[in-house]
Amino acid sequence: MSDNAKSCFPPVVNAQTRLLILGSLPGDASLQAAQYYAHPRNQFWRLLGELLGCELVALDYPSRLAALQQHGIGLWDVVAQARRQGSLDAAIRGISPNDLPALCASLPALRAVAFNGSTAATIGRKQLAAMATLPALFDLPSSSPAYTLSYSAKLAQWQALRAVLA
User: Where in this chain does the record put each Uracil-DNA glycosylase-like domain (predicted)?
Assistant: First the structure.
């Protein structure tokens, strides 16, 4: 069973991070590429590019991360380690959560946390409930191709993040 052990990437944040976007746990394509949201059908980079008014999909990975950080956006996952066959959130077992309160407390400019998908929201909200002062929380539809909501319907809900980025 240990061959199904998966771990998250380090957080991509800095002192200017105003919005922290949290996924659940990287899928197989992301783990193989060692990049957040690497599956070619994942809509994450397209959604954020539309919000930011820049073509993130056309950029190489380091440039994508740099563009996010220039806009005050950080990335991480709610799960530090777990077992999972494949990439579906429903298959995640034996979760060790990340210390979200400690990360949030270390970000002086943090105004909001957005959860990319319901699994991230369920786990992340539990972790953040212990915080004395909570940033604004947004539950977003997953950018994963496994979540079959239309792109336009996803984008309509992701637009709520514009207020934080303004």
Answer: 10-162
Give the chain's residues under pLDDT 50. Answer: 1
Q: What sign has the CA pseudo-torsion 26, 28, 34, 35?
A: negative
CATH of the domain at 143: 3.40.470.10
Asked about 14 being catalytic, the answer comes back as: no
- Cβ distance 6 to 24 under 8 Å? no
Q: How many helices (H) and strands (E) does the chain have?
A: 7, 7
Domain enclosing residue 122, as ranges = 5-164
Number of folded domains that form the chain: 1
The torsion of the CA quartet 45, 90, 115, 38, rounded to 10 degrees, works out to -20
Q: Give the Cα-Cα-Cα angle 117, 122, 128 (nearest 5 degrees).
A: 115
Which of 4, 14, 42, 98 is catalytic? The answer is: 42
Query: Would you say the pTM of this structure is higher than 0.85?
Result: yes
Tens-place pLDDT, residues 88-112: 788 899 999 999 999 999 999 999 9
